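[job 4471] stage=fold_predict status=RUNNING
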Amino acid sequence: MICDSVLDTIGDTPVVRLRRMSVGNGAEILIKLESFNPGGSIKDRAVLSMITHAELDGRLQPGGTIIESTSGNVGKALALIGVARGYRVVLVVDPKAPPSMLRYASALGAELDLVDTPDEHGWYQGPRIERVQQLLAETPRSFWPDQYNNLDNPRAHAEQTARELLSEIPRFDALVTAVGTGGHISGISRTVKRALPEVVTVGVDAECSATFGYPFSQWATPGPSRIRGLGLQWQPRCLDLDVVDRVHLVADHEGIATTRLLASSEGLLVGESAGAAVFGALHHAHHHPGSRIVVLAPDDGVNYLEETFDDDWLRSKGLLERIEEAGLRTVDRLVALARQPSTAAVARTPELTGDLAGSR
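[job 4471] inference complete, writing structure tokens
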């Protein structure tokens, strides 16, 4: 197949069955690998949708400038789509952004604007957004995709990703995916539930996250998550609470250990949020024998080789000790721990939050 643009290669990502990482009760975990998109992540889909709709309604003019706050894959997607469509791209980043992402974006011509002072809690998200607003005011013909609140983000997944998924897997019982901006979990779940009303959607987030508010925020721990892409201090507009049935707040060491073991046991080099989602899927599988569970893996692990897959880095953050104390060096131990993790999946509605068994 000959494509007219690299952007024509977005989508049609494969689904792989986990073979070794299984709870052994007949439950099946299928993982959709969004790293096969040209920019290496599911963000290619959302960013293309946001840019295309902004072009159509005039918010983004030819020769304009795209300005966005990012710590990872949105930056890569914007750099790719910006150069393909002929836009200047300015990415507001912070010191925690993976060096590989910064090099990728720079190679494609994106400009990097570094915010190096966090807020009083150690978060960079707020200061980055403030810098975006400043740059927008200073830059003529500029456009802010606003990934957390732009409804063209979930629209891409409702109209494209979900339909693609349903064509690949016509019947399944649960959808387990990281929350992030709320875009892909909301868009995919909305469409899937129309076709398969009994599907249970589990949103996986970081222990520190207040995305779902009370009562989940009472479990939140101070400071940002080590699992990149998870954990917000606010509820993004892209998140549709009505299509999320359960919430699973995964500890940093659980998600990162799963990410490492997916590489060493399944040959799947995926990102940290995918590891967290698979850990949540293992928990769900323990309590739903014979079920078919679909997991979205938002990106690959290349961005994290110097962190998640580096023992020295993990040791410097106190994570290697936690992984070793929990015995999470083997698949068998990880699978066993997933039955009773540090925080179990909980029904989203407050009246049901005492039910931690994982059933709907």
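[job 4471] summary: The CA atoms of residues 66 and 89 lie 5 Å apart.
[job 4471] exit 0
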